[in-house]
Amino acid sequence: MIGESDHGRLVTVYRNNLDIPNIPPAPPTNLSAEVTGHKAHLTWSASSDAETISASGLNYNLYIGSTPGATDILSPMALPLSNGYRLLPARGHIQTLSATKVLPDGNYYWAVQAIDTAFAGSEFSTESSFVIGAPEISPITNQSTPENQTITTISFNITDTNTSPCSFNLTLTSSNETLIPLQNISYTCNNNQYTLTITPASNQTGTSMIAIIAQDADTYSSTTTFELNVLPVFSEDQDISLTGVSNGSVAFGDYDNDGDLDILMTGSGIAKIYRNTGGSFSEDSAIALPSVYSSSVAFGDYDNDGDLDILIAGNAVSGKIARIYRNTGGSFSEDTTIDLPGVYHGSVNFGDNDNDGDLDILIAGDSDSGKIAKIYRNSDGSFSEYTPVNLPGVDYSATSFGDYDNDGDLDMLLTGETNSGNIAKLYQNSGGMLTEVPGTNFIGVSDASVA
């Protein structure tokens, strides 16, 4: 204390003899530097202090150096840096949680301390760094691609005051090289427009963080990263619970005409329909179908009344069956007027073989009379075998209709086990007649699936 007293001029030092210690604040955290041109905007999170009621009562002090641990750019007036001891009892020179500095090109290292109302300084934060004059890479959003598909649409630019376009030294890294091997990442550059080409490893899915490190002519560098998700083409919907079956068959079809696909499932001695309600499925227990195994099923509107009927074949309690169940407003009843040969280890399909506007039936499998493959033509809702078509009898069969030659009628693929071995044959439809297409050289298979 210096001044005029009643007794003359006075210079006196008074000691604070209170024995309550002042605990310095905690050091700041979450240091961040955003560089734009030669301007660095530095930010950090507020510190805490036991004696300061509000964090807003703290102020801050920082240092900046051109090498780690140096203070040659901005001195903190606090030494040693290891404990942040303040060399003067005063507030810090920063009253907020940020500071902006304009600096020449270079590498910079910085840290910040908190100062409480008693002018005690915290330890300095963990030192951070930034670069002025480093190349600026335009941001890249996170990307996704289906598995087994190359992505070629990732583009970015790099700007720098001392390096010409497309002259940067680029290093590319992948955090998951099993998914994205380094040799599967490449780039091209045209007029400073860089484009990445990334090919995920075959049959791999997951996530990798891709980093692009750009170094300019002055050896300053910057890095940008993005996440690449390689998605499975199909993934199990684990919210859907269905009965497990074997030796069966399944088909999608909107049997209740509500605009979404329901499920028909047979096998292991069951036959059930699961109704789709907003993407979830529940068994429609009001529908009674014959329980079968070694079965095959198909949806089709055989009576042209606008809803899907059911064709079901397999081994039931009563023996081999092949039956049609007519849809009447979402419930089903057997059409007992239709007589089809029962089969199991077979395949059944609806298809308009003769292009007359109604669905005919293809039946293949093991019947009471042996292995068969036959076409049954639809005539106003009744069916009769179309004997001019002569197909090899098969069991353990799979069949499919499709217009392979684009002539407007349905051709047929037939596989299975004949009495002389496995076959896989393509039949061309000409006016309802099916003749084998020579030279296809398909490998014969049985107990298979075709589409």
Characterise the protein shown here.
The chain is mainly β. The protein folds into three domains: 29-132, Sandwich (Immunoglobulin-like), CATH 2.60.40.10; 136-231, Immunoglobulin-like (Sandwich); 249-436. Helices cover 0% and strands 48% of the residues. It has no helices and 32 strands. It has a four-stranded antiparallel beta sheet, with no helix packed on it. A four-stranded mixed beta sheet has the order 10-16-15-12, with no helix packed on it. It has a four-stranded antiparallel beta sheet with strand order 17-18-19-20, with no helix packed on it. Strand 15 and strand 16 (221-231) form a beta hairpin. The termini are far apart.
Any chance you could write out the topology, listing elements then pairs?
Blueprint: E1 2-5, E2 8-11, E3 29-36, E4 39-45, E5 59-65, E6 98-102, E7 106-115, E8 128-132, E9 136-137, E10 143-146, E11 151-159, E12 169-174, E13 185-190, E14 193-198, E15 206-215, E16 221-231, E17 249-253, E18 262-267, E19 270-277, E20 280-283, E21 293-300, E22 309-316, E23 319-328, E24 331-334, E25 344-351, E26 360-367, E27 370-379, E28 382-385, E29 395-402, E30 411-418, E31 421-430, E32 433-436
Parallel strand pairs: 10-16
Antiparallel strand pairs: 1-2, 3-4, 4-6, 5-7, 7-8, 9-11, 11-14, 12-15, 13-14, 15-16, 17-18, 18-19, 19-20, 21-22, 22-23, 23-24, 25-26, 26-27, 27-28, 29-30, 30-31, 31-32
